């Protein structure tokens, strides 16, 4: 068993894989933050999606009144869904890219730009910044993922 | 080739990785179940999102009448989206955590609590149980994921 | 370091893993295409979700008028969400399946049918084709994922 553990440790000790692990964790934590922001706006705006939620957080007021949508809540939820749509491809394609033997400098470039773009995207969505801030930050993350997918397919293509 | 296969088998034979594979598959199957529950409610409540669906499942009744939202359907869909928002981070961070060399007992603790919390969350959402049942089960799964992310970043951080 | 790189290269050189990497990348790129199709319909239908978007793409017209939902946009968005709900399980379970030592021919069969089913599903959703086209293509992809999950659990189950 210690031999197997050693092998796993070698994987996690590989520099490209460590870089992937770091940035994948960062963008996932950023995405998880959206849940807390949604909860914050639901509670402060008193805008809930479930009847059972209104009795806990909206005490003393009519249940029906607080069972509603709120523009700020919906904005965070759209940002959260956009994260899912873009971070899931990054996780999958990024993992395969990290295993496809890229140069460490190229890998860092991809991971850092993607993480930076998604963080800018979140600010652009939540503040909100005027367009095309959000559109551009989305496009940068998208292009980075496409670039990694190209490297993966060039390395492994096996239909 | 058989040498490479042997190496892959060693990965899947590692105890922590086997535990991850087991619980990751369980929570993904649980998430997939939400699709079937949504379909069940759409058919029994006759509440469809697409015009072409109403002609198959809602025969003999007006198409427009069955093109509608239903509270039960929307509840399952919210549960499904909440699964996506929480299980995607578990999959990514959990994989990296399993590769970061945790104690087997600690890994089991994280994986079992997460899977249990998500199963409780599903019952709390669908029955529904009074709050804070759903909120607490969500928070437990969230905290487990944060704990694994902390271990990953402590082990591999490489910005 | 070159020793570690060699080991990673061995993983990516494994034939089953290469097949997984290829098809996982293809279905993720297909899913990412949904973002572009959504953007296309939002711009051509002038139907935006955010006030700040209307001032860029809907110049010369009232902002409020373009802040609306459109049936074509909503259809693509439902297809995108369905992709997320089904491709995330494929990514996770498929990776574990690829590591569980399946026969190459069996692995190809699973990956090809899944990718084909999701491509048919997208056409069935967007054209749209009459039901049960979309339902059947969804069910085929679902069944393939269940089949892989069964193989994974049979190989690694460790509760």
From TrEMBL, chains A, B, C:
Transmembrane ranges, per UniProt, are 20-41, 87-115
Subunit architecture: Homotrimer; The trimer binds only one molecule of glutathione.
Which family does the record claim for this protein? Belongs to the MAPEG family.
The record describes its membrane topology as: Multi-pass membrane protein
**Which protein is depicted?**
Microsomal glutathione S-transferase 1
Q: Which domain of life is it from?
A: Eukaryota
GO cellular component terms attached to this protein's record = endoplasmic reticulum membrane; mitochondrial outer membrane
Location within or outside the cell? Endoplasmic reticulum membrane; Mitochondrion outer membrane
The molecular function GO annotations come to: glutathione transferase activity
Catalytic activity, per the record? RX + glutathione = an S-substituted glutathione + a halide anion + H(+)
Gene label: Mgst1
Q: Function, please?
A: Conjugation of reduced glutathione to a wide number of exogenous and endogenous hydrophobic electrophiles.
The EC code for this enzyme is 2.5.1.18
One Pfam family cited in the UniProt record for this chain: MAPEG
The top of its lineage is: Eukaryota, Metazoa, Chordata, Craniata, Vertebrata
Q: What UniProt keywords are attached to this protein's entry?
A: Acetylation, Endoplasmic reticulum, Membrane, Mitochondrion, Mitochondrion outer membrane, Transferase, Transmembrane, Transmembrane helix
Task: Name the principal localization, coarsely classed.
Answer: endoplasmic reticulum
